[in-house]
Amino acid sequence: MRNLIPLLLIVSACANADGSSDALTGAGELRCEEPADLTCLDELILRLGMHGDRVSEGVVTSVDHGDYFESTVDARAGGFGQSDNNPWLYVRFTEQGLEKVEIDDETALEDMTWHLAAKRFILRLNGGTSGPSCVGAAPVLERDFEDLTQVPDGVRFFQDDFMLEDCTIINDSSGLPDSPQVALSAWWSYPGCVATSGVPFLIQLEDGRTVRLVVDRYYAQGQETCNVHNNPGRDGALLGWRWSFLP
Questions:
Q1: Hey, which of 14, 24, 180, 237 would disulfide with 158, CB 3.0 to 4.6 Å?
Q2: Is residue 236 part of a domain?
Q3: How many domains in the chain?
């Protein structure tokens, strides 16, 4: 079952105090050039387990299938129960495949070269609350990954927005501690294990290009065991993504 509750929270979390929205529209043109100043930095660093002195040891690999890439993202961050003691993994989308960005967490808060950050089951965008760029995402519930061959008319992109004005974190619906309501939350649900929803996303980058992405796998082995029977698979946080640029 697709995780619909986080999708609803994405929309509400992106509403500003004055009733306006942080939704982004348009594609194909440069959207931001200078890094934005982030607020709630101390809380962000503390609550998301960030580190300023180390780069993630996680490895990123990609296989080119012609019309899409299949990438493996090692977001284990030291393994179960150790993620707070290890840094985030930063990646960017390129024409040659998914590329690891070799930066530490505190540098990433001022850096526009990364597009997504991964740690265990949390995927952050470089924009809004999470980063200084302007990367946004939109879940597409009514289509499969294979059907997304172009950006639909009227699509609305949302940046991460999981901090209130008093720097209180907005948690997602999983019930897990320090699990922020990020714009990509709808890729998973938690029926006692990390189940994939199959929801594809459109991700709008800082240069105006759009990527289609779906997370197929959280566990290296036994993902269907979780999805169907609610029992964890093996080797969690070895994420499997399919993605490509859209025209």
A1: 14
A2: no
A3: 1
- Structure-token pair, residue 39: 């607020």
pLDDT by position in tens, the chain (length 247): 334 333 433 333 333 333 333 444 444 578 999 999 999 999 999 999 999 989 999 999 999 999 999 999 999 999 988 999 999 999 999 999 999 999 999 999 999 999 999 999 999 999 999 999 999 999 999 899 999 999 999 999 999 999 999 999 999 988 888 899 999 999 999 999 999 999 999 999 999 999 999 999 999 999 999 999 999 999 999 999 999 999 9
Backbone angles phi, psi at 118, to 5 degrees: -130, 135
Burial of 12 by CB count in 10 Å (0-12 exposed, 13-18 middle, 19+ buried)? exposed
Question: How many other C-beta atoms lie within 10 A of the C-beta of residue 135?
Answer: 29
CA nearest to 101, candidates 58, 148, 42: 58
Q: Domain of 68?
A: 4-11+21-230
